[in-house]
């Protein structure tokens, strides 16, 4: 079953990637040598670094890391950190990692500051397939010698903890089967908890959101909308939110209900504010470029009435702009 | 990493199995034919069925199931159900299943009656390695088109649900690393929740028990004993237990603290009562015969001052006795 799931993933990945890889790719050793050349001399040649690494897929970047380490006896990741700076340093630091390890590293950083970084935890828990989330958790074990679950659990309390821990823990069923009667009864359960307000015990709502399959939750959300004339997300907007639990709940509901729409919204918010939120921008682009960024771009275009690359071009500058534009699929 | 974990599992399995397989094993087709012969004629030849199936390992039984189905165009599992009866029917029904599927089937039955069958859920969650539990959950998806998590969550409420769902959900870290400072501080957390009684919110205790690695919990339990002069399990004995949560908590703590000792105790209890508890007896024997029953037998012998096979011989009779005795490793 896992092999089958992985196959579906890979198929989706190939179709949805936004990066471009040259028809004839240099050998990993040639790329490693070109990178070293870009590091040497007066100042780093950032454009050369981007020209290479933004146009290699995950498997190719892994081989380049290995070739670089063998040839120069230092980690490419370390050298990049010392050669680059600012947002480019952060973005490239994440980009060169193995995609699964990258998510583990980003999740770990978020567990240290869940109040602010909760969207990262929610995205990793809800936008990955169950098989992908499992791989992230396995990478987390290997790197940190702890579980993602225990680090998330230790960083929050109350409803907030119960929700986040359920989201990262559950190995959800990934099939399309839907139980209509269950969807109707659980839409009522959600409504009851929503009505009680976010300071009440949300055990039932968290149970539903935290354990049901994505297909089942889609059916439940539809029943809710049919019954109440509004979406679960909008129904969750009312009332005070002293612990920050309600915004996490909304984030999770939106990410589960429509992942592409959710990420399109994160990108719009990142570029709507006075001053671009580079961190959210680079997180979404770096984490999704090789996965589903094409669909997110389409959704962004539909909703923002401007192409993602145009929006990014307006909001970013310098080497960071070059890099991010390369990942979203338009060369400057 | 998974391959490595599986390797450790397999090593442990080979050393700990209590079943005996003949040096020269008939082909799966020959075994299937011998089974059909045992089914035909006046009444089933139960001894012949046991003689074959109790002395084949999981891989061999799988091949026999396949050969039987190909040759006779019916499921061996179905035929066994119609040919056998009573405890032998139940025990053999579980035994012929693939070990991982068997756990999924047993877990599913338990989710329908968690108040009574909670030990089954606890055992599957806590006595398996994280990799083994994951395999059970994957088998559960495949058979029931749902997750184990959602079925457990739907069958309980309050502290009881939070605990059981945490136990079945978390993909625990499986390494030996222990954080001593954390063990000391979390021993205090456990003590605080124990002191508050089982009707209080046990969020912290459930977080610790539900997410930390087995090694870390071992260290925490040791700190607790050093500090309070009693074990966590014994400290949990006091106070009323209106929801049945406390007994589940104790079961989980005992199963995590010392799995062999826990199962030895389940077997002693199964044979201590007026009238043997055949269901618990066959569950432990069938589920552990090919895994760790040798260690459980040793522990039983130490604590009961009688060998497990002697105790079972005294408490059982007929074909069921023959079968269970074959699985625990002594021929009659």
From TrEMBL, chains A, B:
Ca(2+) binds at residues 39, 41, 43, 83, 273, 275, 313, 315-316. SUPFAM superfamilies: Annexin. GO terms for molecular function: calcium ion binding; calcium-dependent phospholipid binding; phosphatidylserine binding. Keywords: Annexin, Calcium, Calcium/phospholipid-binding, Metal-binding, Repeat. InterPro entries: Annexin (IPR001464), Annexin_repeat (IPR018502), Annexin_sf (IPR037104), AnnexinD_plant (IPR009118). The keyword Calcium applies. Signal peptide: none annotated. PROSITE patterns: ANNEXIN_2. One of its GO terms (biological process) is response to cold. One of its GO terms (cellular component) is cytoplasm. PANTHER family: ANNEXIN (PTHR10502), ANNEXIN D8 (PTHR10502:SF193). This is Annexin.
């Amino acid at each position: 079953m896992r092999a089958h799931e992985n196959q579906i993933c890979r198929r989706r990945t190939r179709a949805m990637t936004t990066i471009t890889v040259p028809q004839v790719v240099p050998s990993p050793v040639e790329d490693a040598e070109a990178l070293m050349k870009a590091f040497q001399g007066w100042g780093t040649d950032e454009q050369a670094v981007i020209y290479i690494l933004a146009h290699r897929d995950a498997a190719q970047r892994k081989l380049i890391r290995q070739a670089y380490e063998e040839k120069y006896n230092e980690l490419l990741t370390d050298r990049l950190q010392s050669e680059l700076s600012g947002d480019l340093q952060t973005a490239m630091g994440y980009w060169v990692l193995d995609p699964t390890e990258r998510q583990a590293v980003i999740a770990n950083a978020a567990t240290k500051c869940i109040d602010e970084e909760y969207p990262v935890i929610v995205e990793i828990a809800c936008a990955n397939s169950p098989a992908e989330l499992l791989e992230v958790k396995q990478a987390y074990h290997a790197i940190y010698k702890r579980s993602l679950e225990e680090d998330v659990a230790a960083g929050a309390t109350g409803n907030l903890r119960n929700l986040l821990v359920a989201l990262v823990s559950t190995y959800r069923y990934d099939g399309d089967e839907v139980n209509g009667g269950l969807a109707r009864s659980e839409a009522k359960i959600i409504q009851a908890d929503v009505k009680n307000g976010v300071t009440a015990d949300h055990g039932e709502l968290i149970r539903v959101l935290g354990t049901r399959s994505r297909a089942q939750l889609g059916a439940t959300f539809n029943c809710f909308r049919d019954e109440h004339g509004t979406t679960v997300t909008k129904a969750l907007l009312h009332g005070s939110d002293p612990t920050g639990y309600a915004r996490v709940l909304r984030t999770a509901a939106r990410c589960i209900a429509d992942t592409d729409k959710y990420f399109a919204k994160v990108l719009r918010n990142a570029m709507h504010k006075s001053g671009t939120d580079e961190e959210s921008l680079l997180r979404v682009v770096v984490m999704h470029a090789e996965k589903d960024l094409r669909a997110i771009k389409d959704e962004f275009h539909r909703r923002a009435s401007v192409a993602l690359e145009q929006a990014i071009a307006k909001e970013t500058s310098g080497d960071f702009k070059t890099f991010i534009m390369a990942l979203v699929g338009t060369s400057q």
